[in-house]
Design a protein that fits this description.
single chain; alpha/beta; Glutaredoxin; 5-stranded mixed sheet; 4 helices
């Protein structure tokens, strides 16, 4: 059973997860000046995630110059979280692990069941969340959100950089906020 979708301009769920480099990431405790870019990924087993996160790591300095803090989060355990951070040679992107499936559902993420080993020969967890990308304002409200039911056709980070530039230049509000009857 899915929860209701997150709404732009409204608070997002809490996010408090351990980091692979020690400490914790607590959304809102020390937000980016303009946004936090929260990238939920499937886990170490996903070859498409690794490629996607390599691109995020490459572009993370560009996000930082625009006032965007970047975090990648999965429901993997600590060992697998650290392996993924090592695989993408993370230095600009914070990596977090241990996302509960309950929290994933609160964020509107889809949950999948294991199908065994992937093309990388890595066993999928029994249950794991599918991808999601969110821009969260420092006040904890949703600016942008995208979720996928599978690893394909995710938002491209270069496009997201362009969107951030447009939002800054035009003081563009979060859209999709209308909740009254239609």
């Amino acid at each position: 059973m899915r929860t209701q979708a997150l709404m732009p301009r409204y608070p997002v769920p809490a996010l408090n997860v351990p980091l692979t480099t020690e400490g914790r990431f607590v959304l809102g405790a020390s937000p980016g000046p303009l946004f936090d870019l929260v990238v939920f990924y499937r886990g170490l087993h996903c070859p498409i995630c690794a490629k996607y996160l390599l691109e995020l790591e490459r572009l993370a300095p560009e996000f930082a110059t625009r006032g965007v803090q970047v975090i990648a989060v999965s429901s993997d355990d600590e060992e697998r979280g650290k392996q993924m951070a090592d695989k993408v040679k993370a230095s600009a992107v914070k990596f977090a692990y241990g996302l509960s499936l309950k929290s994933a559902r609160e964020w509107g993420l889809y949950i999948s069941a294991s199908r065994g080993k992937t093309s990388l020969g890595i066993e999928e967890p029994a249950l794991f969340s599918e991808p999601g990308v969110f821009l969260v304002r420092p006040d904890g409200t949703l600016y942008y959100g995208a979720v996928q039911t599978m690893p394909f056709a995710r938002p491209q980070f270069q496009d997201l950089l362009g969107a951030v530039d447009f939002a800054i230049a035009k003081d563009y509000p979060a859209r999709g906020e209308y909740t009254a009857p239609v």
